Please model this.
Amino acid sequence: MKIGIDKISFYSPHLYVDMNELAVARGDDPAKYTIGIGQDEMALAPITQDPVTLAANAAEQMLTADDKDAIDLVLFGTETGIDHSKSAAVYVHGLLGLPPEARAVELKQACYSGTAAIQLAKGHIALNPDKKVLVLASDIARYGLKTSGEVTQGAGAVAILMSADPKVMEIENVCTAKTDDIMDFWRPNYSDTAYVDGKYSNEKYIEFFSDVWHQYTEKTNRSLDDFEALCFHLPYTKMGLKAMQSVFADGMGDAEKRILSNYQISTTYNRRIGNVYTASLYVSLLSLLELHTSLPEGSRIGMYSYGSGAVGEFFTGILQDGYRDHLCAERHEHILKQREKVSVETYEKVFSQTVPVDGSTKVFDETTDPAPIYLSGIKEHMRQYVCRT
Ligand code: COA
Model:
Protein backbone atom coordinates (compact mmCIF):
# COMPACT_ATOMS: atom_id res chain seq x y z
CA MET A 1 0.00 0.00 0.00
CA LYS A 2 1.27 3.47 -0.90
CA ILE A 3 1.18 6.01 1.95
CA GLY A 4 2.17 9.66 1.69
CA ILE A 5 1.21 13.26 1.04
CA ASP A 6 -2.33 13.64 -0.26
CA LYS A 7 -2.45 17.43 0.11
CA ILE A 8 0.05 20.06 1.23
CA SER A 9 -0.28 23.79 1.86
CA PHE A 10 1.56 26.65 3.60
CA TYR A 11 0.65 29.90 5.32
CA SER A 12 2.86 32.83 6.24
CA PRO A 13 1.86 36.13 7.89
CA HIS A 14 1.07 39.30 5.94
CA LEU A 15 4.14 41.31 7.05
CA TYR A 16 7.72 41.04 5.83
CA VAL A 17 11.08 42.79 6.11
CA ASP A 18 13.37 43.42 3.12
CA MET A 19 16.80 41.94 3.88
CA ASN A 20 18.64 44.70 2.00
CA GLU A 21 17.02 47.25 4.33
CA LEU A 22 17.79 45.14 7.42
CA ALA A 23 21.44 44.83 6.34
CA VAL A 24 21.78 48.59 5.91
CA ALA A 25 20.15 49.21 9.32
CA ARG A 26 22.61 46.80 10.94
CA GLY A 27 25.64 48.30 9.15
CA ASP A 28 26.23 45.17 7.06
CA ASP A 29 26.80 44.72 3.33
CA PRO A 30 23.41 43.64 1.84
CA ALA A 31 25.25 41.00 -0.23
CA LYS A 32 26.11 39.20 3.01
CA TYR A 33 22.36 38.67 3.63
CA THR A 34 21.20 38.03 0.05
CA ILE A 35 24.23 36.04 -1.19
CA GLY A 36 26.28 34.96 1.84
CA ILE A 37 23.17 33.85 3.79
CA GLY A 38 20.83 33.59 0.78
CA GLN A 39 17.73 35.40 2.10
CA ASP A 40 15.81 38.19 0.33
CA GLU A 41 12.87 38.73 2.68
CA MET A 42 11.82 37.66 6.17
CA ALA A 43 8.22 37.03 7.22
CA LEU A 44 7.17 38.78 10.40
CA ALA A 45 4.36 37.57 12.66
CA PRO A 46 2.12 40.29 14.13
CA ILE A 47 0.86 39.79 17.69
CA THR A 48 -2.36 38.37 16.18
CA GLN A 49 -0.51 35.35 14.70
CA ASP A 50 1.04 32.58 16.76
CA PRO A 51 2.00 28.98 15.88
CA VAL A 52 -1.61 27.84 16.40
CA THR A 53 -3.15 30.40 14.04
CA LEU A 54 -0.40 29.95 11.42
CA ALA A 55 -1.04 26.19 11.35
CA ALA A 56 -4.82 26.58 11.35
CA ASN A 57 -4.57 29.07 8.47
CA ALA A 58 -2.36 26.65 6.50
CA ALA A 59 -4.88 23.82 6.92
CA GLU A 60 -8.16 25.72 6.80
CA GLN A 61 -8.59 26.17 3.05
CA MET A 62 -6.94 22.88 2.14
CA LEU A 63 -9.38 20.52 3.84
CA THR A 64 -12.77 19.48 2.47
CA ALA A 65 -15.61 18.22 4.66
CA ASP A 66 -14.77 14.64 3.55
CA ASP A 67 -11.11 15.12 4.54
CA LYS A 68 -12.18 16.33 7.98
CA ASP A 69 -14.44 13.31 8.47
CA ALA A 70 -11.55 10.95 7.63
CA ILE A 71 -8.99 12.60 9.97
CA ASP A 72 -8.59 10.63 13.19
CA LEU A 73 -5.21 12.00 14.28
CA VAL A 74 -3.66 15.50 14.35
CA LEU A 75 0.11 15.69 14.89
CA PHE A 76 1.58 19.15 15.48
CA GLY A 77 5.36 19.63 15.22
CA THR A 78 6.68 22.89 16.67
CA GLU A 79 9.48 24.40 18.70
CA THR A 80 7.45 27.53 19.45
CA GLY A 81 4.97 25.83 21.78
CA ILE A 82 2.62 28.19 23.64
CA ASP A 83 1.86 25.89 26.57
CA HIS A 84 3.85 23.26 28.50
CA SER A 85 0.72 21.15 28.93
CA LYS A 86 -2.06 21.68 26.39
CA SER A 87 -1.01 20.83 22.87
CA ALA A 88 -1.24 23.29 19.98
CA ALA A 89 -2.89 20.42 18.07
CA VAL A 90 -5.98 20.58 20.31
CA TYR A 91 -6.50 24.29 19.55
CA VAL A 92 -6.24 23.65 15.80
CA HIS A 93 -8.54 20.64 16.10
CA GLY A 94 -11.16 22.99 17.58
CA LEU A 95 -10.62 25.86 15.14
CA LEU A 96 -10.98 23.54 12.13
CA GLY A 97 -14.03 21.75 13.54
CA LEU A 98 -12.44 18.30 13.32
CA PRO A 99 -14.36 15.24 14.59
CA PRO A 100 -14.24 14.79 18.40
CA GLU A 101 -13.13 11.18 17.78
CA ALA A 102 -9.81 12.44 16.31
CA ARG A 103 -6.79 12.48 18.64
CA ALA A 104 -4.51 15.55 18.84
CA VAL A 105 -0.87 15.65 20.02
CA GLU A 106 2.13 18.02 19.88
CA LEU A 107 5.66 16.77 19.11
CA LYS A 108 9.03 18.38 19.82
CA GLN A 109 12.59 17.94 18.58
CA ALA A 110 13.65 21.31 17.22
CA CYS A 111 13.18 21.56 13.43
CA TYR A 112 12.87 17.76 13.06
CA SER A 113 9.45 17.17 14.65
CA GLY A 114 7.40 17.73 11.47
CA THR A 115 9.29 14.84 9.90
CA ALA A 116 8.75 12.71 13.02
CA ALA A 117 5.03 13.43 12.59
CA ILE A 118 5.14 12.25 8.98
CA GLN A 119 6.80 8.97 9.95
CA LEU A 120 4.32 8.40 12.80
CA ALA A 121 1.46 9.19 10.45
CA LYS A 122 2.71 6.54 8.03
CA GLY A 123 2.61 3.88 10.73
CA HIS A 124 -0.86 4.97 11.83
CA ILE A 125 -2.24 4.83 8.29
CA ALA A 126 -0.63 1.41 7.68
CA LEU A 127 -2.81 0.13 10.55
CA ASN A 128 -5.85 2.26 9.62
CA PRO A 129 -5.81 2.61 5.80
CA ASP A 130 -9.19 4.33 5.58
CA LYS A 131 -8.09 7.13 7.96
CA LYS A 132 -6.17 10.35 7.28
CA VAL A 133 -3.67 12.15 9.50
CA LEU A 134 -3.30 15.93 9.59
CA VAL A 135 0.37 16.82 10.09
CA LEU A 136 1.11 20.43 11.06
CA ALA A 137 4.54 22.06 11.24
CA SER A 138 4.43 25.64 12.49
CA ASP A 139 6.99 28.02 13.95
CA ILE A 140 8.10 31.58 14.55
CA ALA A 141 11.91 31.73 14.46
CA ARG A 142 13.20 34.32 16.94
CA TYR A 143 16.87 34.92 17.70
CA GLY A 144 16.52 38.50 18.85
CA LEU A 145 17.11 42.00 17.48
CA LYS A 146 20.69 42.77 16.44
CA THR A 147 21.94 39.21 17.03
CA SER A 148 23.91 37.23 14.41
CA GLY A 149 20.90 34.91 14.07
CA GLU A 150 18.53 37.81 13.31
CA VAL A 151 19.00 37.32 9.59
CA THR A 152 17.76 33.70 9.92
CA GLN A 153 14.34 34.47 11.46
CA GLY A 154 10.90 34.02 9.85
CA ALA A 155 7.35 32.80 10.48
CA GLY A 156 5.01 30.30 8.86
CA ALA A 157 3.39 26.88 8.85
CA VAL A 158 2.78 23.90 6.60
CA ALA A 159 -0.24 21.59 6.73
CA ILE A 160 0.07 18.11 5.24
CA LEU A 161 -2.75 15.62 4.82
CA MET A 162 -1.30 12.10 4.96
CA SER A 163 -3.30 9.20 3.54
CA ALA A 164 -3.20 5.88 1.72
CA ASP A 165 -3.10 6.18 -2.11
CA PRO A 166 -1.82 9.77 -1.84
CA LYS A 167 -2.36 12.18 -4.72
CA VAL A 168 0.90 14.15 -4.45
CA MET A 169 3.77 12.02 -3.15
CA GLU A 170 4.30 8.51 -1.85
CA ILE A 171 6.74 8.52 1.09
CA GLU A 172 9.01 5.50 0.63
CA ASN A 173 9.79 3.16 3.52
CA VAL A 174 13.58 3.21 3.41
CA CYS A 175 15.04 6.10 5.38
CA THR A 176 18.12 6.73 7.52
CA ALA A 177 18.49 8.69 10.74
CA LYS A 178 21.03 9.83 13.29
CA THR A 179 20.66 11.16 16.87
CA ASP A 180 23.42 12.71 18.98
CA ASP A 181 23.12 14.75 22.20
CA ILE A 182 24.79 18.06 21.29
CA MET A 183 24.30 21.74 22.20
CA ASP A 184 24.22 23.59 18.89
CA PHE A 185 20.86 25.35 19.40
CA TRP A 186 18.34 25.27 22.23
CA ARG A 187 15.68 27.42 23.88
CA PRO A 188 15.20 26.90 27.63
CA ASN A 189 11.59 27.10 28.87
CA TYR A 190 12.22 30.56 30.38
CA SER A 191 13.56 32.13 27.17
CA ASP A 192 11.62 33.82 24.40
CA THR A 193 14.56 33.62 21.99
CA ALA A 194 16.93 30.81 21.00
CA TYR A 195 20.49 30.22 22.18
CA VAL A 196 22.72 29.12 19.34
CA ASP A 197 26.30 28.31 18.53
CA GLY A 198 25.83 29.26 14.89
CA LYS A 199 29.05 27.96 13.34
CA TYR A 200 28.84 24.68 15.30
CA SER A 201 25.21 24.19 14.20
CA ASN A 202 26.29 24.67 10.57
CA GLU A 203 29.05 22.06 10.98
CA LYS A 204 26.69 19.59 12.64
CA TYR A 205 23.98 20.08 10.02
CA ILE A 206 26.48 19.20 7.29
CA GLU A 207 28.03 16.31 9.22
CA PHE A 208 24.60 14.77 9.93
CA PHE A 209 23.62 15.12 6.27
CA SER A 210 26.79 13.45 5.11
CA ASP A 211 26.25 10.59 7.60
CA VAL A 212 22.59 9.89 6.78
CA TRP A 213 23.21 10.26 3.03
CA HIS A 214 26.08 7.74 3.09
CA GLN A 215 24.05 5.38 5.29
CA TYR A 216 21.28 5.64 2.69
CA THR A 217 23.48 5.02 -0.35
CA GLU A 218 25.03 1.97 1.36
CA LYS A 219 21.61 0.61 2.32
CA THR A 220 20.04 1.08 -1.12
CA ASN A 221 22.93 1.17 -3.62
CA ARG A 222 21.33 4.34 -4.97
CA SER A 223 23.29 7.45 -5.94
CA LEU A 224 22.56 11.04 -7.01
CA ASP A 225 21.60 9.59 -10.44
CA ASP A 226 18.45 8.12 -8.83
CA PHE A 227 17.19 11.54 -7.73
CA GLU A 228 15.48 14.31 -9.65
CA ALA A 229 16.00 16.72 -6.76
CA LEU A 230 17.07 17.01 -3.13
CA CYS A 231 15.17 19.23 -0.69
CA PHE A 232 16.68 20.42 2.57
CA HIS A 233 15.67 21.83 5.91
CA LEU A 234 16.51 25.48 5.24
CA PRO A 235 17.29 27.72 8.23
CA TYR A 236 18.66 29.91 5.41
CA THR A 237 19.08 28.94 1.79
CA LYS A 238 22.90 28.85 1.73
CA MET A 239 22.81 26.10 4.38
CA GLY A 240 21.31 23.37 2.19
CA LEU A 241 23.64 24.30 -0.64
CA LYS A 242 26.70 23.77 1.54
CA ALA A 243 25.44 20.38 2.74
CA MET A 244 24.55 19.27 -0.78
CA GLN A 245 27.93 20.25 -2.18
CA SER A 246 29.62 18.24 0.59
CA VAL A 247 28.43 15.00 -1.05
CA PHE A 248 29.01 16.02 -4.67
CA ALA A 249 31.88 14.13 -6.28
CA ASP A 250 34.71 16.17 -7.77
CA GLY A 251 33.47 17.77 -11.00
CA MET A 252 29.89 18.40 -12.06
CA GLY A 253 28.21 15.47 -13.80
CA ASP A 254 24.62 15.51 -15.16
CA ALA A 255 23.16 14.46 -11.80
CA GLU A 256 24.97 17.20 -9.89
CA LYS A 257 23.93 19.84 -12.47
CA ARG A 258 20.26 18.73 -12.35
CA ILE A 259 20.19 18.64 -8.56
CA LEU A 260 21.87 22.02 -8.24
CA SER A 261 19.47 23.61 -10.73
CA ASN A 262 16.44 22.12 -8.94
CA TYR A 263 17.86 23.21 -5.60
CA GLN A 264 17.62 26.85 -6.73
CA ILE A 265 13.91 26.37 -7.51
CA SER A 266 13.34 24.60 -4.18
CA THR A 267 14.63 27.63 -2.25
CA THR A 268 12.43 30.29 -3.90
CA TYR A 269 9.66 30.42 -1.26
CA ASN A 270 12.18 30.07 1.57
CA ARG A 271 14.17 33.08 0.32
CA ARG A 272 10.97 35.12 0.82
CA ILE A 273 9.69 33.65 4.08
CA GLY A 274 12.87 33.00 6.05
CA ASN A 275 13.38 30.31 8.64
CA VAL A 276 10.23 28.49 9.72
CA TYR A 277 12.02 25.75 11.71
CA THR A 278 9.79 22.61 11.51
CA ALA A 279 8.08 23.81 8.33
CA SER A 280 11.21 24.83 6.40
CA LEU A 281 11.84 21.52 4.62
CA TYR A 282 8.20 21.35 3.53
CA VAL A 283 8.11 24.95 2.32
CA SER A 284 11.12 23.99 0.20
CA LEU A 285 9.33 20.89 -1.12
CA LEU A 286 6.33 23.07 -2.04
CA SER A 287 8.60 25.54 -3.77
CA LEU A 288 10.06 22.76 -5.90
CA LEU A 289 6.72 21.12 -6.77
CA GLU A 290 4.83 24.35 -7.47
CA LEU A 291 7.49 26.41 -9.24
CA HIS A 292 9.21 23.72 -11.33
CA THR A 293 7.30 23.59 -14.58
CA SER A 294 8.35 20.13 -15.75
CA LEU A 295 9.23 17.89 -12.82
CA PRO A 296 8.30 14.42 -14.17
CA GLU A 297 5.68 12.23 -12.50
CA GLY A 298 7.38 9.21 -10.94
CA SER A 299 10.47 11.26 -9.97
CA ARG A 300 12.23 10.43 -6.74
CA ILE A 301 12.83 13.43 -4.43
CA GLY A 302 15.28 13.16 -1.52
CA MET A 303 14.55 15.09 1.67
CA TYR A 304 16.92 15.99 4.51
CA SER A 305 15.43 16.93 7.86
CA TYR A 306 17.61 18.32 10.68
CA GLY A 307 16.61 19.38 14.17
CA SER A 308 19.33 20.81 16.38
CA GLY A 309 20.12 19.03 19.56
CA ALA A 310 20.20 16.90 17.31
CA VAL A 311 18.32 14.50 15.02
CA GLY A 312 18.88 14.19 11.27
CA GLU A 313 16.97 12.06 8.78
CA PHE A 314 17.14 11.37 5.05
CA PHE A 315 13.97 10.05 3.44
CA THR A 316 12.47 9.98 -0.02
CA GLY A 317 9.24 10.43 -1.94
CA ILE A 318 7.91 9.50 -5.38
CA LEU A 319 5.77 12.02 -7.26
CA GLN A 320 2.40 10.53 -8.16
CA ASP A 321 0.65 10.64 -11.55
CA GLY A 322 -1.27 13.90 -11.89
CA TYR A 323 0.32 15.36 -8.72
CA ARG A 324 0.28 18.90 -10.18
CA ASP A 325 -3.54 18.93 -10.21
CA HIS A 326 -3.53 18.62 -6.42
CA LEU A 327 -1.22 21.52 -5.56
CA CYS A 328 -2.40 25.01 -4.58
CA ALA A 329 0.25 27.22 -6.21
CA GLU A 330 -2.18 30.09 -6.89
CA ARG A 331 -3.19 30.37 -3.25
CA HIS A 332 0.45 30.42 -2.18
CA GLU A 333 1.33 33.05 -4.76
CA HIS A 334 -1.55 35.17 -3.45
CA ILE A 335 -0.39 34.79 0.18
CA LEU A 336 3.08 36.07 -0.75
CA LYS A 337 1.85 38.74 -3.16
CA GLN A 338 -0.59 40.41 -0.76
CA ARG A 339 2.04 40.88 1.95
CA GLU A 340 2.99 44.31 3.22
CA LYS A 341 6.62 45.36 3.53
CA VAL A 342 7.43 47.03 6.85
CA SER A 343 10.35 49.29 7.74
CA VAL A 344 13.07 48.05 10.08
CA GLU A 345 11.71 50.44 12.72
CA THR A 346 8.21 48.90 12.48
CA TYR A 347 9.70 45.38 12.48
CA GLU A 348 11.50 46.13 15.74
CA LYS A 349 8.26 47.37 17.32
CA VAL A 350 6.23 44.37 16.12
CA PHE A 351 8.99 41.97 17.20
CA SER A 352 9.00 43.46 20.70
CA GLN A 353 5.24 43.07 21.26
CA THR A 354 4.46 40.13 23.53
CA VAL A 355 1.39 38.46 24.97
CA PRO A 356 0.88 39.51 28.64
CA VAL A 357 1.88 36.84 31.17
CA ASP A 358 0.30 38.38 34.31
CA GLY A 359 -3.26 37.14 33.76
CA SER A 360 -4.54 40.53 32.60
CA THR A 361 -7.06 40.81 29.79
CA LYS A 362 -5.74 42.18 26.52
CA VAL A 363 -7.57 42.65 23.23
CA PHE A 364 -5.39 42.90 20.13
CA ASP A 365 -6.11 45.08 17.10
CA GLU A 366 -6.83 42.56 14.36
CA THR A 367 -8.07 45.07 11.78
CA THR A 368 -4.87 45.05 9.72
CA ASP A 369 -4.40 41.24 9.80
CA PRO A 370 -6.15 39.65 6.79
CA ALA A 371 -5.72 36.08 8.08
CA PRO A 372 -8.95 34.04 8.32
CA ILE A 373 -7.89 32.80 11.78
CA TYR A 374 -6.22 35.07 14.34
CA LEU A 375 -5.42 35.56 18.01
CA SER A 376 -7.83 38.21 19.27
CA GLY A 377 -6.35 38.53 22.75
CA ILE A 378 -5.77 36.84 26.10
CA LYS A 379 -7.95 36.57 29.19
CA GLU A 380 -7.01 34.95 32.50
CA HIS A 381 -4.02 33.27 30.80
CA MET A 382 -6.29 31.80 28.08
CA ARG A 383 -5.54 32.66 24.46
CA GLN A 384 -8.63 33.80 22.57
CA TYR A 385 -8.78 32.62 18.97
CA VAL A 386 -11.20 33.77 16.27
CA CYS A 387 -12.10 32.12 12.97
CA ARG A 388 -13.65 34.70 10.63
CA THR A 389 -15.18 32.07 8.30
N1 COA B 1 29.08 39.36 0.33
C1 COA B 1 28.79 38.05 0.14
N2 COA B 1 28.92 37.11 1.12
C2 COA B 1 29.32 37.53 2.34
C3 COA B 1 29.62 38.88 2.60
C4 COA B 1 29.48 39.82 1.54
N3 COA B 1 29.74 41.11 1.71
N4 COA B 1 29.98 38.98 3.90
C5 COA B 1 29.94 37.74 4.43
N5 COA B 1 29.54 36.86 3.48
C6 COA B 1 29.30 35.42 3.63
C7 COA B 1 30.36 34.73 4.48
O1 COA B 1 31.52 34.43 3.71
C8 COA B 1 29.60 33.51 4.91
O2 COA B 1 29.55 32.57 3.84
P1 COA B 1 30.13 31.08 4.06
O3 COA B 1 29.43 30.52 5.28
O4 COA B 1 29.79 30.38 2.82
O5 COA B 1 31.59 31.26 4.32
C9 COA B 1 28.17 34.01 5.08
O6 COA B 1 28.09 35.25 4.35
C10 COA B 1 27.77 34.28 6.52
O7 COA B 1 28.76 35.10 7.07
P2 COA B 1 29.26 34.87 8.58
O8 COA B 1 30.30 35.85 8.87
O9 COA B 1 29.54 33.42 8.81
O10 COA B 1 27.88 35.27 9.32
P3 COA B 1 27.57 35.33 10.84
O11 COA B 1 28.77 35.15 11.70
O12 COA B 1 26.81 36.59 11.00
O13 COA B 1 26.60 34.05 11.12
C11 COA B 1 25.01 32.29 10.91
C12 COA B 1 25.81 33.37 10.18
C13 COA B 1 24.18 31.50 9.94
C14 COA B 1 25.96 31.34 11.65
C15 COA B 1 24.07 33.01 11.94
O14 COA B 1 23.16 33.78 11.24
C16 COA B 1 23.35 32.07 12.88
O15 COA B 1 23.87 31.72 13.93
N6 COA B 1 22.11 31.64 12.51
C17 COA B 1 21.31 30.75 13.33
C18 COA B 1 21.80 29.32 13.33
C19 COA B 1 21.48 28.55 12.10
O16 COA B 1 20.68 28.96 11.30
N7 COA B 1 22.09 27.37 12.00
C20 COA B 1 21.89 26.50 10.88
C21 COA B 1 21.85 25.05 11.22
S1 COA B 1 20.31 24.56 11.95
User: Anything to note?
Assistant: The chain has 13 helices and 18 strands. The chain has two domains: 3-167+327-387, 171-323.
